[in-house]
Fold this protein.
Amino acid sequence: MPYNYYYYDGQVDAAEVDYDSIFEENQPIYEWRNTYETCIIPSTLQILWYMSILIGWSFINRVGLAVFVRLQIRHEWILHTVSILPGSCILYITVGLNSLIIAFFAGLSYVMFLLLNRFAFCRKNMGIIMLAFTISVHLGSEVIWKRQLAWQVIKGSIMVANMKIISVAFEIAETALKSQQNITVPNVFSFLGYIFMPSTLIIGPWVPFSAYLHSIHQSPSISHYRWVVWCLLCSVLSLSFINLSNCVVPLIFSSQSPVWMRIFRDALAVRCSHYFVSFLSQASIAASGISVDKESKANAWLGHMITKPLNVEFPRSLNTVVRSWNIPMHIFLKEYIFRGVYKRFHSQLLAIFITYFVSSLLHGEYLKIYLVLLSLASFGYIEYKIRLKIASAFNACVAANICRNPCHYKYCPSHGWTSDGAVIVQLVNISFSILTIFHLAYLGAMMSDPTEDEDAPEITGYYDYLKAWSIVSYSNHWIALFTYVLFLAI
């Protein structure tokens, strides 16, 4: 049979059509396989290396404390050195010679403590003075080194160190207010041991100075295995969330999805990234035996909680999200900022906004954080006030905070689903929960990189960051304004 060019060409075209149709039918399979090979596996291997360093040196810290306490070493400086040395090693491994910057910040702060302790007025206001000092040094350094890679590497560690320094200053000031005697600052070994704790130095969390002292003297045991379970489960959760953030969530929602789906996608990726850091810090805390708070109760399976994802993903209110997002930082801000401002000015609104503003400053020169946190403060305060007014007006359990047990409101689902108004109350709470979820998506999308979407506006300056919200016409800000007007009208 003679060779027919047109027949062959037709067969090729048909084959290409068949191949393309098969490829399109199996496109999800190829995408998932490609994501698994090019994203999940490399990401997991990289994080496992980083995780092994963080958890490994935290465990060395635990073993060292257990050995020296078992040997009944009475020299306290040795126990603090057991924290300083592993902390210095992990810092050098992760950031190299940039660790000297953190050492310089710690030394400079300690010199300030010694100078302020010489004057009674400075001792009594040491918390405020050191708060202003640490934030000023942080912001000044960021202005100078903002574009330097070294600064970006140690920025998170500087923030955690600043929180530790501020908390020590407020504890000294509180002691000075109760006594007229000359207050002695912590010795240099205890101070550096607190700053250089390996389990909290790189990614946090913040722990009180008193909790650190309590932990190094309680002889963390290495014989029972509950802490091993905590460490393993938190590590698995941490790896799962980082892969969700980097690989899975972007694959589920494409850039061609509707705008609100892209907003929910970006916000979910940001939250999963936060959960990754939180559970990794929980694993390091479990490995080291350090308590987040000497009075806190550990979760049976996960240890001392840094975050509560279920409370964030299925929230009752924005207040619930704030308390559950970063529990140690919430305690820090409430203990040292909110209460102090409220005690001095007796204004809840002022205390809330100053607290959120200080939280923004602790993150450095990061306009996105300022926009998100100040908006979160506004949304949360308006929601809290209107729900409190509705709860008081109708004697119903619809306040932002969950009701105590037993509930003192007349209408509450805790009295039984057949009780008066129980279903309506629950529907109102669900409605506010849905609104909170939309607020979280709206605020969280600001923290993602808008340039990843082709349809997203290009950012050319500071004020152009607002374009991330302009895509949806600042809808949630308008909702908050409407809610506030409704609150005034009720």
